[in-house]
Amino acid sequence: MPLSKELKKEMFWMMLLSRRLDERAWVLHRQGKIAFHISGIGQEAAQVGAVYALNKGKDWLVPYYRDLAMMIAMGMTPTEFVMSLMGKAAEPTSGARQMPSHFSLRQANIVSHSAPVATQSPHASGIGLGIKLDGKDEVVLTTVGEGSTSQGEWYEAVNFAAIHTLPVVFIVENNQYAISVPQEKQMAVSNAADKACGLGLDGFQVDGTKVFEVYEAVERAVEKARNGGGATVIEAKMYRLTPHSSDDDDRSYRTREEVEEHKKRDPILLAREQLIEEGLMTEEEYQEWEEKAKAEVDRAVDEATKAPYPKPEDAAFPVYAEVKHG
Amino acid sequence: MPLSKELKKEMFWMMLLSRRLDERAWVLHRQGKIAFHISGIGQEAAQVGAVYALNKGKDWLVPYYRDLAMMIAMGMTPTEFVMSLMGKAAEPTSGARQMPSHFSLRQANIVSHSAPVATQSPHASGIGLGIKLDGKDEVVLTTVGEGSTSQGEWYEAVNFAAIHTLPVVFIVENNQYAISVPQEKQMAVSNAADKACGLGLDGFQVDGTKVFEVYEAVERAVEKARNGGGATVIEAKMYRLTPHSSDDDDRSYRTREEVEEHKKRDPILLAREQLIEEGLMTEEEYQEWEEKAKAEVDRAVDEATKAPYPKPEDAAFPVYAEVKHG
Amino acid sequence: MAEITLVEAIRQAMDEELAHDENVFIIGEDVGVRGGVFRATVGLFDKYGGDRVIDSPLAELTIVGVGVGAALYGKRPICEIQFADFIYPAFNQIVSEAAKMYYRSNGEWSVPMVIRAPYGGGIGGGLYHSQSVEAFFTHVPGLKVVIPSNPYDAKGLLKSAVRDPNPVMFFEPKKGYRLIKGDVPDDEEYTVPIGPAKVARKGSDLSLFAYGMMHHYALKAAQMVADEGIDVEVIDLRTLYPVDRETILSSIRKTSKALIVHEDNLTGGYGAEIAATIAEWSFMDLDAPVKRLGGPDVPAVPFSHPMQEWFMVNTDKIADAIRELASF
Amino acid sequence: MAEITLVEAIRQAMDEELAHDENVFIIGEDVGVRGGVFRATVGLFDKYGGDRVIDSPLAELTIVGVGVGAALYGKRPICEIQFADFIYPAFNQIVSEAAKMYYRSNGEWSVPMVIRAPYGGGIGGGLYHSQSVEAFFTHVPGLKVVIPSNPYDAKGLLKSAVRDPNPVMFFEPKKGYRLIKGDVPDDEEYTVPIGPAKVARKGSDLSLFAYGMMHHYALKAAQMVADEGIDVEVIDLRTLYPVDRETILSSIRKTSKALIVHEDNLTGGYGAEIAATIAEWSFMDLDAPVKRLGGPDVPAVPFSHPMQEWFMVNTDKIADAIRELASF
Ligand SMILES: Cc1ncc(C[n+]2csc(CCOP(=O)(O)OP(=O)(O)O)c2C)c(N)n1
Ligand SMILES: Cc1ncc(C[n+]2csc(CCOP(=O)(O)OP(=O)(O)O)c2C)c(N)n1
Ligand SMILES: [Mg+2]
Ligand SMILES: [Mg+2]
């Protein structure tokens, strides 16, 4: 399905809002207002492009920690995110039990993930199995970094989905580093998408800096999955424009020149150029959006700052779900 | 290196001896003289073909439980094997701590393996790393069943060897079943060898019922590895002619017709035919060998029967290797 | 009532739960046409089909990880691990994922699943087909750990496990699969609640805590020493985690002596927790050291018969320990 | 003597061992140019090159499994697990392979390797960057488990671990990496033997057993209550497995009271083994319940500050437990 003008603009808005929110998190960290941030900057095109291929409220998402833009596009509010940064009680992913960016949103079918990488991949296959057993036409989309595809866990997850022709789309967000480790120390294939051929399913690479190209590739995979065609691996290739996290210093392992070079292909820039070129957005409109994004982020920080912390003893629960009798 | 007449005959002898020994194990089990046997019947060509490509005493072998013919070809004596079947103290793999067919032979660079499948695969990569770090021209060969390639452990092992161009040959002995589970429930690719393309190294399939074809394929991979060309995956395809083990009853999951059909391609028959056709062995010679094999097996059973059991309290050691001071 | 074996009780529980709730399915190695290597799922593939009784790839991480995902979707997977010794590839999924999901999502996501695995030695299985693995899981909040000792409990507890909204580790004493027989109602449905331990034999001189196969031997040993005038109270712990402190401590209040038995390696085994609980909360009731009897601290049960016997706790060893403690 | 941090002591130990034995190499995630996420390997890549300090793929099973293989070949790998919380993917290789290799091959094959991992909470790491995992390994014959509490021991024990012919789990209290400083000889080489616990503070009223970060707090708490007239003997367990029973029991013979502290979840934690040991072998010496203080039985340390504080054992909580027990 080709994207309408409205949808394209909406996608750009999600990317922009997510970017400004993400940037603010870095500022909050420098200000000593939050203890930790792990960033999605540079990966917004891949993330927004991917989830716009989903049927929201119906399909399933099993994300990883860089997927802020996915979460925003799926309905998590900036306030909710800033609350999680600050460890506030009302943040919806974990009631402030997990570190920020360990996402979950029950009402949007977005499954809670943890920190050990790739553990979420088999969950996606399990959800896919559930869908197939129930005969539904839902789809699961799951993400992982390229480094994390080194885990046997990812291989086993994809293998199971391939064997059982499950409706799963496995996205690999290849940002070229796993903390400090470059791709060539993770795999001997040139592209993560090549791993698909060893698992007996389709694998494609897509330019992860181009939101609409990502959308198109993922949309095809989603529709294939929905129509019983089984799973696909899609590698979205881009670059991690920030250090790994607020604890990282990337100067020990990559040059400033390398980073600057990649900033030229910042997905926000590229999408903005395209929208303006295609006449879908004016420069004025863009400026308004910038202001609007800033205002939304300001408000989020404001609201989150006022929100209460959890009570210490809240930590005692909930360890077990209650057994229902009868 | 083309095989000499002598070597070809020697290889056949190893297959034959191993087969008669294996068959005797089934008999001992039926007689109630041993508690358990897991068989390599049908896989002798792949096993003997593979290890004849190694430089004995120099190269390394990391086998799995069906590799009786490999072990015999590498120098384990029939008596040693029967002792392990009977749990006798002097059996060299584990001093009767492990179940039979959990092989190990220190002096032949054959590493101890356990029961959880595919745990040995990363060991092979680690040995390969050791060889590379030490700048030696040794090679490691390791084996696994096709079902066991479903373990993330196997994927990770091959991935590491591929990344670091390690001198490892990963053999998959595809006997078409993992206990009762057929290949199509293990993988979506048509051949286990196809998994190599997703891992960035060469992968080949070879007819695992043809001992000399296996030899040639493995020999190429071994020489490539020895010359710094890195790892290879080789799938040897054959058929498990017996139930999974003496605890199994395969009638619940495959027909007798299917098994009988595959007996026509018994690797012993095929090799015997070929040797006779090529004029390397006469029918009389073959009959002599049969007698010799029977005599060797008889003697092994006899010696093993007389060998003492371990003392109960032998089980208390050795938990830790002694720390050397200074 | 009908007398059936332990493994048949387990099979019946799964059969009934598959019939009772269409979200229940079984996944594991060889559970389909083969009916499981211990025949615990025999007939279920024919009765419920390949969508309800799924032959997994040979990969325990897959079995559990896919199970977790399916449970998140709303299914109720019963995951079979062929031998407890092979559960380690799934350890990350069990400990990081299944156990922590409910807490980490603040109750938004739950993982109703059962992980079944045969455990224990004495069957000639050697190091890798004999292990007891319960102590790795009785330290993991979010999990429940159950080990039945007889067909009645096995059936009732497994049915409860399948209906429980939490991940339940269900370890089955494989040596007892066909050896242990017992009566199970054949006309009415029942469950046994997860949680309470059971006083299987009342006594006044000494409290003997065990579970699984060892409980079976414990009862025999108690019988043996009864003739010598030692009156042993035998408690079948059944649910190992969370710990049923109350039942344990009440028994000590009565007997003042504690003996804990398991076949797993002694050090760091489950018995340590029971001993520690008693030493802290029943100290004033005790009149003798808290005694543990467990497997020796070698890596696992060796294969060869004489060495296996050396390793295994059995009725005689339990009786000796009882005598020693009773005479303190 | 020079005062250095805990993490610097660990770095020095590896530096010296890399220099001392060419078979030693380091493998782990980001250990190369990055120098490790906690900077424990800083400078070693530059000094020894990429063959001795190897950036692994992001896969713990690979790190340990390849390490086992290399050790079988004759190398001496030091495997770094970035956080102890991420050790579970390697659980099978550690428990099934490294721990059992020597026994199962009747001494023919050994696995000289060290697995280092930072553990523990109180650093805002939430559920998956705060875990204590020692209890999973102090139940595994064939492994040794070491947790240092100060730079001197850390350096000496790590050097011993690298030279040990057995697999050694070496857990480092990450909160103390930069917080804990101490003197280390800078002119002479030394090692600290794996095995013996250490009486870090002599006392007569009560024995306090701890390790790692908690030992650090234990000393402070002992200091605190000393002014109140409670004379606490503080024992740094250091080597958790095999258990140094003798040091533990001699202390109890003197003090008659035992308090065991760890930050890991209480139930099934390492403290259970120590309590059980004391309750069995020192029963006649005891004049009070054996007390344990540990983390609460929730899945792991929560992220948000108030909840993290609630979880963590600290000096005040230890001092309170001392007072309570001393007044028994
Ligand atoms: C099992 C596990 N090991 C180690 C880590 C520590 N860690 C967190 S993120 C990361 C790198 C991930 O790289 P990649 O998969 O490429 O994703 P990216 O962060 O680049 O998006 C590592 C090593 C972890 N979270 N989980
Ligand atoms: C981790 C693990 N899970 C389960 C088993 C039980 N098991 C032993 S052999 C086997 C099948 C192996 O199949 P395959 O890899 O094809 O080798 P084959 O036996 O056919 O040679 C299974 C499931 C095991 N040994 N290890
Ligand atoms: Mg990356
Ligand atoms: Mg097979």
Folded structure, characterized:
The complex is a heterotetramer, with 2 copies of chain A (326 residues) and 2 copies of chain C (328 residues). Chain A is built from 10 helices and 7 strands. Chain A is an alpha/beta fold and 326 residues long. Chain A has one domain: 3-Layer(aba) Sandwich (Rossmann fold), CATH 3.40.50.970. Chain A has a 5-stranded parallel β-sheet, with helices on both faces. A two-stranded antiparallel sheet of chain A has the order 4-5. With 328 residues, chain C is of the alpha/beta class. The model of chain C has no long low-confidence stretch (mean pLDDT 98). In chain C, β13, α10 and β14 form a beta-alpha-beta unit. The radius of gyration of chain C is 19 Å and the shape is globular. Chain C has a 7-stranded mixed β-sheet, with helices on both faces. Chains C and D meet through α4 and α10 of C and α4 and α10 of D. Bound molecules: thiamine diphosphate (TPP) (2 copies) and magnesium ion (MG) (2 copies). One thiamine diphosphate sits at the interface of chains A and D.
Can you give me a brief rundown of this structure?
By secondary structure, chain A is of the alpha/beta class. Chain A contains ten helices and seven strands. In chain A, the strands form two sheets. Chain A has a five-stranded parallel sheet, sandwiched between helices.
- Tell me the structural class of chain A: alpha/beta
Q: Let me know the number of strands of chain A.
A: 7
Query: Which cofactors or ions or other ligands sit in this model?
Result: thiamine diphosphate, magnesium ion
- What's the story with the biggest beta sheet of chain C? 7 strands, mixed
Question: How would you summarize the topology of this molecule?
Answer:
The complex is a heterotetramer, with two copies of chain A (326 residues) and two copies of chain C (328 residues).
Chain A: H1 5-30, H2 44-51, E1 60-62, H3 68-74, H4 78-86, H5 120-134, E2 140-145, H6 152-163, E3 168-174, E4 177-178, E5 181-182, E6 202-207, H7 211-226, E7 232-237, H8 256-263, H9 267-277, H10 283-306
Parallel strand pairs in A: 1-2, 2-3, 3-7, 6-7
Antiparallel strand pairs in A: 4-5
Chain C: E1 2-5, H1 6-20, E2 24-28, H2 44-48, E3 53-55, H3 60-73, E4 76-80, H4 91-98, H5 101-104, E5 114-119, E6 144-146, H6 151-163, E7 168-173, H7 176-179, E8 181-184, E9 198-201, E10 206-210, H8 212-226, E11 232-236, E12 239-241, H9 245-255, E13 258-265, H10 270-281, E14 291-295, H11 305-311, H12 315-326
Parallel strand pairs in C: 2-3, 2-4, 4-5, 5-7, 6-7, 10-11, 10-13, 13-14
Antiparallel strand pairs in C: 1-8, 6-12, 9-11
The structure holds thiamine diphosphate (TPP) (2 copies) and magnesium ion (2 copies).
